[in-house]
Every structure is written in C-alpha cells, then in structure tokens.
Amino acid sequence: MHLHLREGAMMERVTPLTAEHFAGAIIMPNLVPPVDNLARLQTYRDEINAAKGAHVFDPLMMLFFRNYTKAELLAAREHIFGIKLYPAGATTNSEAGVKELDAVEDTFALMEELGIPLMIHGETHGFVMDREKEFLASYAHLAEKFPKLKITMEHITTRDAVELLDQYENLHATVTLHHLIITLDDVAGGLLNPHLFCKPIAKRPEDREALLAAALQAHPKLMFGSDSAPHPISKKECCGCAAGLFTAPVCLPTLVELFEQHDALHNLQAFVSGNAQRIHNFTPPAKTVKLEKRGMLVPERYGDVVPYRAGETIPWAVTSIS
Amino acid sequence: MHLHLREGAMMERVTPLTAEHFAGAIIMPNLVPPVDNLARLQTYRDEINAAKGAHVFDPLMMLFFRNYTKAELLAAREHIFGIKLYPAGATTNSEAGVKELDAVEDTFALMEELGIPLMIHGETHGFVMDREKEFLASYAHLAEKFPKLKITMEHITTRDAVELLDQYENLHATVTLHHLIITLDDVAGGLLNPHLFCKPIAKRPEDREALLAAALQAHPKLMFGSDSAPHPISKKECCGCAAGLFTAPVCLPTLVELFEQHDALHNLQAFVSGNAQRIHNFTPPAKTVKLEKRGMLVPERYGDVVPYRAGETIPWAVTSIS
User: Which value does ipTM take for this structure?
Assistant: First the structure.
C-alpha cells in the first residue's frame, strides 16, 4: 500500500519486480513534476501498465496533494485511490508539498465529503529522531476535525504512532518491511550503511519492537506498504546519499521468514492484503503466490539498483504465481 | 588533547597539519597492532617527530590499555602521557580493547599508585544513541573506586556527560570541535553525509547545546581534543563508511569563529590549552599562533582525505606562528 515506481528506464526496470509478486500497489506521486493533475496521472498509469508486462497487477493511483477544487476532485475521484500529502521538503521530491496544514483544510473538507482517502507523510522539520512524534498532534487534529476523512499515517516508525492508531477510528497506518527489522543501529551503529538510509529514518529498538508486534498480530488498522524506493547506486554510495530502500523483490520472502520466526504466519495474509482491502473497501485482481522454503539468493544488483539484502540467501522463495 | 595521526604515508601527510597550529597533542594508540608496549611507542614517537618537520610540536604518547605489570608501567611512566582504554569493538581498531572493566582493575590500581592518567573511550555496545549515557555509570564507578586516578572521559557528546563532570573531582573530559557544532541531523537529517559520520555519533540538539555552553565558559574540567581522524575518501564515500572527521587544519580557525560568535574569545585559550596544562600539570613548548579575520578557503582534499568544512571559507585564518 505504498510503492515508488519512478519514471522512464527506472520504472521499466522495477515495475515487473513488484507486479510479479503483488496484485496491486498504491503508486506514489512524488515525481518531478509531481502527479497533481488527472492528465498526468492517466499517462503515468498507462506507462506503468505497459511496464508491468504480462503480470496481473493494478496500479492504485494517487494524486500529489495540493489545494484542489471540487470540480477537480469530482473528475478525479473514479481514477484515484487517494491523495498523498507531503510536508514541503520532508523527503525525496517533496518540494511542492504543503507548507501549512491549516491553509489547505478546504481541500480536506472536500475530500471528506467526496470519500477520497488522505495519505500523509507525517514528519515535521524538527530533529530527525523526533519528526514523526512531533507530527502526531497534526494527525490527531485532522482525525478529530474531519471524522469521516479516511487518513493513513504513512510508513510509521515509532511506538507513539502505533499507540495513536487506536485513538481515532478514521486513522490508519502503513508500515514498511524494513522498519520491522532495522533500527538506527543498522544505519549508523557500526560502519555507516547508506543502503539502509531511509526516510523516515529507522528509530530506536523499542520503536521497532512495537511496529513488529503490531504487524505480527495483523493489527486491524495497520497495512503493509513496502515503500520500496529504487535509487541508482551512484545516489547511494556517495557523499549526500539519497533516502530509500529497494525492497520490492524481497518483500514477500522476507515477510514470510519474519512471520514464521514469530509463529505468526496465520496473520500474514491480513497484514499484507486483507486489512487494506477491508479498510479501503476494494478488491484487487485475484492472484495466488506460493512460497517454498528452498532459498532465494538475492542479486547484488538489479541494473544499477542495489536491493535490500543484496547477496543474502533468504530461506523462502516465491515458486509459483497463478 | 585527542588526536589520530595513523602511520606510514597517512601519518606523513597529516602530522604537519596539526604540528603547525598546535604545540602538542595526545596521540591515539589504536593502530594495527595497537601501541601497547614501550618499544612500539618509542618507534612511533620517533616517526611522528620525523614527520612533523620543522614545526615545534610535542607528541604526547599514549599506551593502548591492556593489563600491564608494575614493572612495565614503571618502565613506561616517564615516556607516556597516559593510557587509553577502548572497550573491545567500540570504534576503529579497538578489537584488542577491554571486554570487562572488572577484570582489569589491578591495572587501574597500579596506574593510580604510579600517577598515570587513564583516558577512556566511554561507550557501551548498546543502541547507538545511548552508548555514552549507558557508560556513565562505569565512569562513576571507576572515579569512586580509584579516587586518585586521573580519568578523562574522551570526546563526550551528551548533556549527561557534562553533568557528570561536576560529580567527581578526578573526572575530566575532552570534547571535539565537531560535537560543538553538529547533531545527528547534520549526518542523517537531510541527505546522508558520510563526512560527518563519527564515533561517538553526534547526538541531539540539547546535547550539543550543553557541550557548547561548557566549552564557551571554558569549564575547568573540560579540554579541547579534536579527535581529528583522517580516512581516505575511498573509506568515506562508500558502502560501509568509516567513522571520523579530519578536522586538524580547521580546528583553530573554526574555534575562533565559534567563540567569537558567542562573545567568548576570552575563554578560548583556557579551553584549547590552559585547562589541559593545569589538569595534567605539564608545559608544552612555547608557541604563539596568530589568527586574523581575512578568510581561509578550506581545500577540497588533503591528498585523499576530505577535511571538515571542505570548500567552505572560514572567516578566520592562521597568519603567523612563532
């Protein structure tokens, strides 16, 4: 429920890697320029559908949040899954994002009226370890002020966000694979590892534990969203490394490994797919993915993109898709 | 009071850059193999003295901590400034360090008896942001159990460490230039910046403020120690970047800039030199360094080492040394 496919050659390379294993994914609109009008969104969707090849896969399209008119939203409604809000400057290609939440409440009210979900990259511009926690008050404010607006806290990384989930009926969350596994220790505790640098940054051990516990029990308001985000190696192993992990090809094998380790395989389907279908009341195309415990050697590179767990052997591998 | 000069070609390149501006520096012994015997220490000192050229500069030599006999310490005493303790695996080349502090207390007792100062890299193996704070109990234990042992908390990075300084008479501290200026935000808040990655990692804004406040007032138990640590660029801009900033050539200009900004220039001499002379009761060779406000353009590289503030212009420059 949270995926970056980029554009052009990168999109063509990475789209099949998600489209193979998943029946659908919410496609992030933080391109340059952003996907903030229907014509651009439809062109982008067509490009993704061309890039996915023969795989059964529904790109769930998102508009980039700006102040929209009611006419724009009415025209867009049947073509979009939701609208994604970025605070200006919070992450990759978010310069066109929102500077003041108070100034865009008319659009929130329209989205509530028209039943359009709002997804938010919830970080302030504060100290890097505090940015999500500082944003929680804004989530609470919006959830309370717009009680019929379906709000998703995107890629949550803290125990505090998990705890907020239960406070407001209209508040949901996605969580990535990597935030269930890594902490800041893995990024900067030994040698510095740019391949594990992401936004929001991985937090403390107690945060990771709370996220993992919620995922393993398939907390009914929590949805898997890989946030798989490819960057060429030249933007990762350098001075000024970009934020994002490319997890798409290893998501399912790693999730099966993780849920098996914690005797929670019975909750995996709900976490990966069922919760999202119920929360957003949609049905993706039918797809059965079978994994077996026979080992998957993760390639060192996909083109010029280094995947998460590059060079590792994951016990589980996808062996058939139907 | 805390400097890395390395060995071989790197030592030959970086030694003059400190020896020019400073009359003396404590030389870290975490080489491979470590400087843990008098013969190796004397050879290393001779190499440094050869590399410093015509500059007036005293290398203040340190032994790498291990269990030493009284005979070894008696023989070493007049040749060393102190002994540096690393917890095993805490930082670069510390694999030969101490696994259990309790197991080496005989050596602490001998050092106390013989008046040999103990310098400690005080970090546990816990979560990266907590490692120094978790070690403070060990500092307190040692300071209390060996009240005549002169202990330095090396390169402190937290408000808690600053506060501990006042609790034990025999406890002192060094602080680097960069920990007075940067926080984790500068390392990982925007793009990831490997050139600002160091150990201990830069902490929170309130930590930086406490360190800076103590430095600006020339807290009598706090000494400047640059911890300048050169790594070739191939070990910084890569996957698995090494920890350390090369600050030697910009220390004095940056300190003058910083203390001037805070109207604290009258405390700079004590912070950089006076406190250390009083605490350790020694007199370095006489040296007068004059700085003028006429701009220093920091080179992009010194050989294959990228310095702190590479490419920036610092308002102050060293203009004469006598």
Answer: 0.92
